[in-house]
Each structure stands twice: as C-alpha cells, then as structure tokens.
TrEMBL record:
Transmembrane annotation, as ranges: 100-125, 137-156, 168-187, 193-218, 225-244, 256-276, 304-322, 334-351, 371-392, 412-431, 438-456, 462-480, 569-590
Identification of the protein by name: Putative efflux pump antibiotic resistance
Bias-annotated ranges (Polar residues): 16-42
Region (Disordered): 1-45
Domain annotation Major facilitator superfamily (MFS) profile: ranges: 103-596
Pfam families registered for this protein in UniProt: MFS_1
GO MF: transmembrane transporter activity
GO CC annotations, alphabetized: plasma membrane
Compartments, as annotated in UniProt: Cell membrane
Alphabetized UniProt keyword annotations: Cell membrane, Glycoprotein, Membrane, Transmembrane, Transmembrane helix, Transport
Length: 606
C-alpha cells in the first residue's frame, strides 16, 4: 500500500516492535503475547527504515521456501529504499561517475576564479598605475569589486529561490566574464573600475550558486566532502592570486590577470549547461509564477528592501575603507557615511519585518538557530581568515625581506593546511554525520594559531612560522564549510538558497569589514612605532616606501628600527585576527547538533 495510506502505528492498532526497539525492551516485555494478525490486507503492514528494522513479533515462516521468500522480500524492500535515498526530492537521480566529477570540477573552477579576482590584482596594481597614471584611483580597483559583490549577494539568494537555478548561475558567470573582458581591454582607469564593478556583481552569485547546485548534485550525507573542496578554493586563490599576478605582470602583461578568467569560465559554463539538471519547477522554491501579475512577481524580489540594503552596505564599506586613511575618522564625510548606513539599515530591517515571506531574508529564516549561529560563525571565521591572509605576506616582505613571489611561497603552509583540513573535515563529517564538533575545534585552533602568529619577531625561524601557519590553517579549514553544511541540513529546498546566501554574505562582509579595520590598526600603529623605534625618519617616508621596498629605500641607520616598527604593527593586526577567531565561539557554541547523514524514513508497506 502506498506511503501514508495506513494509520500511524501509534494510533488505532497496537504497533509491533522492531528489532532495534526490542533490544532495549525488558525480558517481561519480550515475553508478552503477540497480537494475532488479521486477514485484512489493510491491517498487514510493517515499517521500513534506512537502517533496515525488522519485526520481532512476526510469525516464523512455516518452511525454508517461505523463509527464503520472506528474506528476499525484505532485501528487495531495503534495496528499493536505499535507491530512493539516492534521488532528489523532485525524484531525479543524483548524477554519478564522470558527470559528477565534471560538475564538481566546474564548480571548483568557478569559485576559484571568483576568489582569485579579489587577490590577483594586488601585484598588478603598480604596473596599472604606471600605465594609466592613476595612483589616486588605486583604492577603487579593489573596492569596486568588493562593493558590488557584498551588495548583491542577498539579492542573488532571491534569484535562486524564484528563478531557474541553472540560468541564474550561468548569468552570474556571464556577468563576471563580461567584467573581466572589460578589465582586460580597458583603455583607461575609469573603464577598469567599471569592469571591476561588473565582475563583482557577477561574483556575488557564484559561491552561493555553486553550493546550491551542489545540493542538487550530491546527497546530503556525501555533500561535506565535496563542499570542502569547493570552499577550499578560497584558500588556494588567496595565495595563488599574488603569485599568478606577479608572473603575468612580469612575463606578459597585467591584462592577463583578467583574460585568464575567460577560458576557465567558459569551461564552467559548458559543463553546467550540458550536465546539470535543475530541479523540476526550475526554481528551488518550486513555485510557479505563471498565474501571477508582474506586480506580484516583482514584489517577491523585495525591490524596496534591495534598494535600501545595497546603498547601506556601500556606505558602511566606504566609511571603513576611507576612515583613518583617506579621511580622518571625525571628518564630515566619514560621519555622514555612518549616519546614512544606520538610517538605511534600520529602514531595511523594518521592511523585512513587514514583507515577511517576500522579504529579502524572511524573518522566519533568520530566527532559526542554525541560520543565525551559522552566520555569526561564518562572519567571524571570514574576518579572521581574510585579515590574516592579507597581512601575512606583508610580514614576509617587510620584516623578512622577501619578494612578492617569495612571500606567496612562504604563505603556502597556511594554504595547504586550509585545503587539506577542509577536505579532511568534509570526509569525516560525511562518515560521522555531525559538523558542530568541527566548528568548536575550529574556534580553538584558529584562536591559538593566530595568537601564536602574533608573537612573531624579526628573527623568528622557518620552523616556527611554518608550524604556526599550519595550526591556524587547520582551524580555518575545519570550520570554513561547516555553516554551509548546517543550513543545508536543516532548511528545505525553498529556503535553501536564502540560507546559503545569508551565510556566504556574512562570510564576505566579515572579511571585507575587518580587512579594513586591520588596515587601520596597522597604519596607525606603524606611524606610532616608527616614532618610537626610528625617530630620525618620518612616518610618511616609511609609508610611501611600501613593504617590498623598505630594505632598499630606508637608510641603513634607520632600517632596524623601521623593521621592528613594521613587525610590531603587523603583530597588532594578527591579534585582531586572534580576537575575531575567539568570537566565533558564539556561532559554534550555539550551533544545533544535527546530522547530515539523513533522516530515517518510516514507510508503510503492504
């Protein structure tokens, strides 16, 4: 009989016990008389669960043939159930073999390119400013990409909820590729900034889209191992970016920093287009909009909330990037940016409360413990990781005297440990089912690792800085993907895009905000320590020399003092990373203990 056709065993007829429940029964319970079976087919049923429970009250088969038939029937039922767990909720089978491998590689490449574009430009900026004579626009080369990425991530969550997942993802890749092409052929600084903004708009939908596609490609119990590979691309790109940027700039042209995105992005587009099958109904929500008016359809995307949220985030990021560097913290522009941010974000929150289900982030979703604790953990982890990965190469260059390329190589222990421990955590979570222990372990290892890194001195040996990087990288690797696994374990298909977008946005915003905060801490402390350790040279001279040139441009009598000033200023930024890592205990401590191995299925069988 079909599932749901029989009354619950807790209602009506007394249910028969399964073997798993009878093990825990007392001897007296085991000796109770069995309830005789009726001849009515509607009364003959048993329960099948993923762990293949069997009845202890069924009568013994009268003959070996009947016993064999009974066993084969149960095996067939179990096999059928196991096959059912390998299909999506819409009944479509998950891809396997070559198709699964191609989709996974394509998603990894997409996330790698998105993260690479945020770091590869760093070593190309000197050549770009030489060609365009645009030293005053340097800040916009990075911030234009960052601003559009952060501002549009939640909107892409709505797109994935209500539109075709495949085409939204391909559209995001297309925007990213268009922006990269504009950057590559840019004739002037303005065109380059516009291209960076367009590429950032596309990147806003890439990571969340990749993880949503993964959710429809791999069963939940296997997903951690695959998502570990995808999220580890952040670590790979963070170190590979400056290396590739330096190679392209020195051996070819800085424009290849953007051209490289085109062929690799095309591979992702082709694979996703031909091998990924989106859920039936096209969107993750499965809701159809064909019978709705254009006004109703538009309202589903929360246009007013979006118009308030995007400028709010832009104001906040600009205030943090400009404050203490371009403008003083008490300047009118910085104060105005913070005030406008506050007004807009309050208005946005009020709109979310009013819109409810049509909100950019429905309050119902944000109230879920897994979502808000996962977002808090993602924000803290992203902030600690990106702050640390940004300033560690500066320490190698300014204090150890390494070149830009060499500093990237010396940063490899962090990269390798992030990737390996992320993959390791994914495999173990797939086996054990629980992700919360790895979040708690991540908090401890990150805090200790970055705390130890903050003790570096100019004479610190290679064994020490390698070991401490591995420790911090292990903490990041263990925790980086876990909030994303958490929301996928508890949210249904309709809410999955929104929950994923919220976690990705939290991670991006945390990294963006605290890289700016760490930059201000570093700049202010460097000025202070130069005055303490090398009073004979002006702080402006040290700042203008840059990290890679102080060994050449600073007079020898001041070099030791300036090097020590750089070291101590950078150690303050690593203390910020350690503090941020410690705050991740809020997210990991409040995270629910759920399993990704799947819920047991209780099926009534005729």
């Amino acid at each position: 009989m079909a599932h749901g056709a029989h009354p619950s065993p807790t209602l009506g007829a007394t249910p028969r016990k399964s073997t798993s429940s009878s093990i825990a029964s007392t001897d007296a319970e085991k000796q109770q008389a069995q309830i005789p079976r009726t001849n009515s087919p509607s009364d003959v049923y048993h329960h099948v669960e993923i762990d293949i429970k069997e009845k202890d009250d069924a009568p013994e088969p009268p003959a070996p043939a009947a016993d064999l038939a009974h066993t084969l029937s149960r095996v067939a039922t179990a096999a059928s159930e196991l096959r059912r767990t390998e299909t999506r909720q819409d009944g479509t089978e998950y891809p396997g073999g070559v198709k699964l491998a191609l989709i996974t590689v394509a998603l990894c490449l997409a996330v790698f390119l998105m993260a690479l574009d945020n770091s590869i430009i760093a070593t190309a900026i000197p050549k770009i400013t030489d060609q365009f004579h645009s030293l005053d626009a340097v800040g916009w080369y990075g911030s234009a990409y960052l601003l559009t990425t952060a501002a549009l991530q939640l909107l892409f969550g709505k797109f994935y909820s209500y539109l075709n997942i495949k085409w939204v993802f391909l559209g995001a890749i297309g925007l990213f590729e268009l922006g990269s092409l504009i950057c590559g052929v840019a004739p002037n600084s303005t065109a380059l900034i516009i291209g960076r903004a367009i590429a950032g708009a596309g990147s806003a939908g890439i990571l969340s889209g990749a993880l949503i596609i993964l959710a429809y490609t791999v069963p939940l119990r296997q997903r951690p191992a695959y998502s570990g590979g995808i999220t580890s691309m952040y670590g790979v790109a963070s170190v590979a970016g400056p290396l590739l940027g330096g190679v392209f700039t020195d051996k070819a042209t800085w424009r290849w920093c953007f051209y490289i995105n085109l062929p690799i992005g095309a591979i992702t587009v082709l694979v996703v287009m031909f091998f990924f099958q989106p859920p039936k109904g096209a969107s993750a929500s499965g809701t159809a909009s064909t019978n709705k008016t254009w006004r109703e359809i538009l309202n589903e995307f929360d246009p007013l909330g979006t118009l308030l949220f995007m400028p709010a985030i832009v104001c906040l990021l600009l205030a943090l990037q400009w404050g203490g560097t371009t403008y003083a913290w008490n300047s009118g522009r910085i104060i105005a940016l913070f005030v406008v941010f506050g007004v807009l974000i309050v208005a946005f929150l009020l709109i979310q409360w009013r819109q409810q289900e049509n909100a950019t982030v429905p309050p119902r979703v944000m109230k879920m413990r897994t979502v808000w604790s996962g977002s808090a953990f993602a924000a803290a982890t992203g902030a600690a990781f990106f702050s640390g990965i940004y300033f560690l190469p500066l320490w190698f260059q300014a204090v150890k005297g390494s070149s830009a390329v060499s500093s990237g190589i010396m940063n490899l222990p962090m990269l390798i440990s992030v990737v390996l421990f992320s993959l390791m955590a994914g495999v173990i979570v797939s086996v054990l089912g629980y992700y919360t222990p790895f979040m708690l372990l991540s908090t401890v290892l990150m805090s200790v690792g970055y705390g130890l890194i903050s003790t570096f001195q100019p004479d610190t040996g290679a064994g020490v800085w390698i070991g401490y990087q591995i420790l911090a990288g292990a903490g990041v690797g263990f925790g980086l993907q876990q909030p994303l696994m958490a929301v996928q374990a508890v949210l249904n298909d309709k809410d999955l895009p929104t929950g994923t977008a919220v976690v990705v946005f939290s991670q991006t915003l945390g990294g963006s905000l605290f890289v700016s905060v760490s930059q201000n801490v570093f700049s202010n402390k460097l000025v202070e320590y130069v005055g303490d350790y090398a009073p004979g040279i002006s702080a402006s001279t040290v700042l203008s020399a840059g990290a890679t040139s102080i060994q050449k441009l600073i007079p020898s009598e001041f070099l030791n003092g300036v090097t020590l000033a750089y070291n101590d200023a950078l150690m303050q930024t690593f203390l910020v990373s350690a503090a941020l890592a410690a705050t991740s205990i809020v997210g990991s401590g409040f995270m629910e203990w759920r399993s990704v191995k799947g819920k047991k299925v209780d099926v009534a069988m005729a």
